[in-house]
Amino acid sequence: MRARDVSRLPRVEPAGLDAWLLRLFDTIDEANLPWMTALTRACEKALGPDLVDLVPSYTTLLVVFDPLRLEPDAARRCLEAQLASLTPDGAGDDGKRHELPTWYDVSVGPELPTLAERSGLSVDEVIACHSERSYRVFALGFAPGFAFMGLLDERLECPRLDTPRRRVPMGSVAVTGRQTAAYPAVTPGGWNLIGRTSTTLFDRHHDGFSLLRMGDRVRFVSVDRADFEAAGGDATPMDPMPKHKEHS
Amino acid sequence: MAEEGVSGLRVQRAGPLALLQDAGRFGVRQLGVTQGGPADLHGWAWANRLVGNDWGAPALEVTFGGLELVAERDLSVAIAGADLGVTVDGKPLAIWRSLTLREGQVLAFASPVNGLRAYLAVAGGFRALPVLNSVACVVREGLGGHDGEGHKLAEGDRLRVSATAGREAPVDAAQPPSPPDYQQPGPLGLLAGAQIAEFSGTSLFRAFNTVWRVDDRADRMGVRLTGPRLQCRLSTMISEGIGMGAVQVPPDGQPIVLLNDRQTIGGYPRLGALTPLAASRLAQCLPGQEVKIMAVSHERALAEYRRFRGGFG
Description:
The complex is a heterodimer.
Chain A: E1 11-14, E2 19-23, H1 33-47, E3 51-56, E4 60-65, H2 72-84, E5 97-103, H3 112-119, H4 123-131, E6 135-140, E7 147-150, E8 165-168, E9 172-176, E10 179-182, E11 187-189, E12 192-197, E13 217-222, H5 225-230
Parallel strand pairs in A: 5-13
Antiparallel strand pairs in A: 1-2, 2-4, 3-4, 5-12, 6-7, 6-13, 7-10, 8-11, 9-10, 9-12
Chain B: E1 6-13, E2 17-21, H1 41-50, E3 59-63, E4 67-71, E5 75-83, E6 86-88, E7 91-92, E8 98-101, E9 106-109, E10 114-122, E11 126-127, E12 158-161, E13 188-192, H2 201-209, E14 212-218, E15 222-226, E16 240-241, E17 246-248, E18 256-258, E19 265-266, E20 270-274, H3 276-283, E21 290-291, E22 293-295, H4 298-310
Parallel strand pairs in B: 13-22
Antiparallel strand pairs in B: 1-4, 1-12, 2-3, 3-10, 4-9, 5-8, 5-10, 6-7, 6-9, 11-12, 13-20, 14-15, 14-21, 15-18, 16-19, 17-18, 17-20
């Protein structure tokens, strides 16, 4: 009954009483983004006041609707129609461009030496490698304004920490797998820290709340401590902590 | 409207966790902001209804108890959801009905008698400045609540109410149902999800025929259930949006039911999602309680939900 024909994409999957999950792709790819951003907008427009929330991610869009106003079957038909008529955003180049001034230093990025050791690069080469690339925002999640960006240079690929930190400082720039991110607020976190940005990433008093949105392009620009602090960055070193073990 | 109202209640003793909750924060999940809102939608809705409030009015979610509030003016209030051994000036109080609290009286929540989370509503609703269009308090995100900063209630805090909060509850206020027996939550209805066929046959049999135990790792983000290990052909997936009540199964095979403060996206396969009212009942279970999961159809779940919501306008 559940043959492999369900693997055809795109498809609409059940996700509870008030939601459908639209699955478009099965791999993480920058080429997904123009489709994902177009679909998000199309669903917002098509459902109008019956829409409750949208959660786009790397390959999927969760659409939450009001089941008091809209029959789930009617919602599904509406979403299928959006999928059938979807055209990608022009050239996939609609996202905003951002530069995040980043102070790369072992006092705020304690995993810099670990990354250097793993990759066989010097710390300076690790910094150059991370900062020369432009990353796309694939998804937001984990915490308000937390943007999952990629793809990281293969040489910097690394696993999460075995034991997540209980407290990662705001602005911490981090990597794991082939992704990078900056922590918008103080939270626990298991990514490898390599620096800190002075840019505010989530501001509840600011109109758009989150600086980064899906599809945006981000570059981390290496700055020295003086410029970092002049821009409002907090140079407080990481709390002393037990040494983390890495996966072998 | 950002009306700030007048002080209605002062916190004399805070207890472990008391949070202001409206229906939740919606429309901002694509920024990574979670839903929040009452863990037991049913109890929260009834507390509001018993004082004549519209759907969505902010009410106080009191988890476990230990909270003492002093009325700073006459207030028409109602408590629904869990029985936490509530007293007024030391005298036991019947809940699931409206009453007038007089200025100076002390309303106290002791500890769980039946259920885990009580809801205190006041006529006209508690007042607080919305953050991202909601006062739902999410501590982890520092958003919402009585102070807008996502803080739980602390000693000395004041809860603001509308200036007309002292009026008697409407005489035509709805007859409440008998308070649920939260110790016997009944089977929790689950709507099958897209990955259900990726679980082994044995695991599916176990999922629906096991008495699951509510673990002590349970909070407003999610409730872990312990029992036999469920096996899925998928271990992790690319992270995707997670709906309310989603039952995810990490590699250790122990399901986690995701509730109001869950992360917006996640990468574990899911059996499906509990119905909204099943998630509400689970949120009233104390660690160590036993629950069963039962597959239900979308039609049945929708009819049940519409019956529930039908009375709330």
